[in-house]
Amino acid sequence: MDKNNKVFGIFNFKSNKNESLCENNEPQEGLENTSVAEVDPDDPPVLPDVQKLPSESIDIGDINTGPIRPKLQTYPKTVFGKQNRGFSSTLFDGFPWLEYSIQKDAVFCYPCRVFGTGRSEDTFVTKGFRNWKKISGSISKTSKFNSKSKLEIHATTKQHLINSEKWASYTQNIKSGSVHTQMASAYREKVLKNRAYIKNLIDVVLYLERQGLAFRAHNEEKTSINQGNFKEACVLLSKCNEDFSTIFNEKTNYTSWSIQNDLINISAQMIKNTIVNELIESGFFSVMCDEARCFRQEQMSICVRYTKNLKVYERFLDMCKLVKDTRIVFNCLETLYVYFSHPGNDAKFTEIQVKLGIKKTSLTRLSDTRWNCRVRNCVAVKLNYKAIVTLLNDEINSSTNKDVVQAIGIMTIITKPSFIVNLIILEEVLQIINILSTQLQKKDATLGSAVTLIEGVIKTFESLRTEVEFHNIWEKIINFTKINNIIPDFTGPNSKTSKRQRQSTSNLEDFHVFATTSSEQQNQNEFNQYTESYWRTHYYQIIDTLIIHFNKRFSSNSLELATSIDYFHKMNYYESQCFIEQYKDLLNVDVNTLQSEMLVVKNCVSRRNPNFTLEDIKLIMDAELYPNLYKLLSLSLTIPISSAICERSFSAMRKIKNWLRTSMNQDRFTNLSLIYIERDLSNELSNEKILDTFAISNRRLQL
User: Fold this and answer.
1) What does each C-alpha distance from 309 to 282, 305, 631, 634, 642 come to in angstroms?
2) What is the dihedral of CA 645, 649, 651, 657, to 10 degrees?
3) Rounded Cα–Cα distance for residues 191 and 185 (Å)
4) Which terminal residue of the chain has fewer beta carbons within 10 Å of its beta carbon, N or C?
5) Alpha-carbon separation of residue 241 from 17, 154, 199, 249, 639 (angstroms)
6) How confident is the model at residue 265, as a pLDDT?
7) Are 101 and 71 in contact (CB under 8 A)?
8) Does the reported pTM lie above 0.85?
9) Among candidates 47, 3, 20, 58, which has minimal Cα distance to 167?
C-alpha cells in the first residue's frame, strides 16, 4: 500500500495558484507559446496515439497546441545540497522539443509524450524531469571527458529520434497535407489564380465600356506599337501583377475578340435582366422608339419608361439597324458640309458669295439627333446654290485640286432633278415640323399642352395636299432652276423615250381623227404635263406620309387622353374622366373612392402650395393611404411625353461608333451602347457574377 502510494503519489497533488494560467490551453499573459498549424477540417490527418497524463495536468501541450514553453521572470527553486536550483528558459533555445509544466515544476519531451509508444522514457513522458542539478551536465576537472546533461542524453536516444521524426512528419503533413490534399490544394490555387486573371480582364472590359472607348486596333500583334486599348491595358496590368503576367504571356490568354464579345454580351445581358426585373416589379411600362442615321445606316433606338415608387425611369434597351435607300438628299447635304468645311474651299465659297451679291451664309453640319439642323441646312444650300455650283465648276475646270473627283460627284448629285425637287419640298415641310419640334423639346412641355399646335400642324399638311399648293411648289422649283441657270431633265425615272421618230400611220391620212396618236406625244406641252404629273405624285407621297405618321403619332384619342392626364395631375376629377375611364377596369380602381382620394390630396397640397406641381403630390403620396390614386398616378407617369431618352442614346451612338469603328457588328454595338448609356446600372455590375456566367461555358482555362 505504501509502495502504491509512492508510485502514484505524483498524481495526488493539489491545484496551485498557477493552475488558472493554463486553463483551457491558454498560456499565461506575457508567455510565449509555440504551436503547430491548425488541422484542415476538410482533410483531417490520422492522429497518433497520445500518451495521456492525469486529468489535472492540463498546462502542457497536446497535438493541437504543440509544446507549451512558458518564459517566466523567475521559476520555482529547489534546494540541492547547499544551492537553490531551478529551471532556466535558456534551455528552450537548445532543445525545441522541450516543454515546461508550471503545475509540476518539471520538464517534458513533447514528441515522446505525444507521438511516443509505451517504450518511451517515463521520466520525460509521464513523471516529468525536475532534477535541476543534472539538467545542465557538468565539466570534469580531472578527466578530459565532460558529463552530458540529462537533456542531451535523452536527445540522442533512438526512441526520441523516432518520435521527433514522427513529429516533423506530422507537422509537414499538416502544412502541405496528403498527396490527394496537395493535388486538390494545387488545383484550388490554380483556379483562384485563373479566376483572378479573368476578373482583371472583366474590369478592363467594363472600364472601356463605361468610357465609350475602342477595344481593338488595326494591328494587335505583339510587335505592334499599339495593340489597342484592351491589350495595352492588359500589358499595363501585367507589369504590376506577376500572376496576371504569367497567364497573359501564355499562348491561351483569353484576350481575343470572341472573348471580348462574350464578356460584353454577359455584361449587357445582366443589365437587361435588371431592367426587365424592374419592369415586372412596376407592373406596366411604355415603349419608345426613334431613329437616326449613323454612318449610312439607319439605327432605331428602343427605350422603355416605367415608375418605381413614383420615380420615373427611362431605360435604353436596344439599337436596331434599319434598311433604307432613300437617303440621297441628306447624304448629299452632309457631303457638301464636309467639302466646304476645308479652309481653302470655304474661303473660295465666301469670295463667290460676295461676287454674286449673296448674303454670306455658312453650311451647317447635319446632326443625327437634332432634326431642326436639317431645316437650317436646306435653307443654307438653297440660298447658296448658285455659289456652290460656281465653285464646283471652277474646281472641275481647273483640275488642279486633288478633290476634283469629289467635286464632280457632288455636282452630279445636286444638279439631278430629284435633288432639286426634294430640296424645295423638304425645306417647306421641315420648317413646319420645326415649330412643333421646338415646342415639344421644352423642359416643361407636355403632350396635353401642345394639342392645339399639333392639330394646327396636321391641318397645315392637309391643306398643302392640293393642286394649288403643288403648283406653287412647282413654280418655285422652275424659278429656282432658272435663277441658277440649270436645265434639268425632269423626266420621271419610269418614262422611256424611243430613239425612233414616231409617225402617223398612212392609213389615217384620208380620215378626220378625234383622238391623239403616238406621234402627237412629241408635243412639248403634253410632255411637260406628263413630267409635272410625275412630280405631283412624288409631292403627294411626301405629304401623305407626313399626314399618316402625324395622325398615328398624335391621334385624336391620344390627344384627348394627353389633355385628360394633364388635368389628372392637377387633381381635377371631372376633367380627367377620359383617362380614368380608360384604365379603371384594367387597374381595378374604385371610382368613388378615387374621387375622395383626389379631393383629399388636392386640399393637402393646396394648403402648402396653391400652385402645386406633380412633385408636390409625390411628397405626400402613400400607396396604402391612397391606393387607387397611387395606381393611376403611376400609370400616368409611365406614359411618355417625348422620345428624349432615344435622342440621348443617339448622342452616345456617335461616341461609341466613331469613324474608326465603323466595321463594328450590330450586336457588339448594341451591347456597348447599353452598358455606356445605362452607366448607373453598369457601375453596379459584379465581376464575380460575370465570371460565374462566363465559366458556365466550356473553357480551356480552369475556372
Assistant:
1) 9, 13, 11, 8, 21
2) 180
3) 10
4) N
5) 55, 51, 13, 12, 51
6) 93
7) no
8) no
9) 47
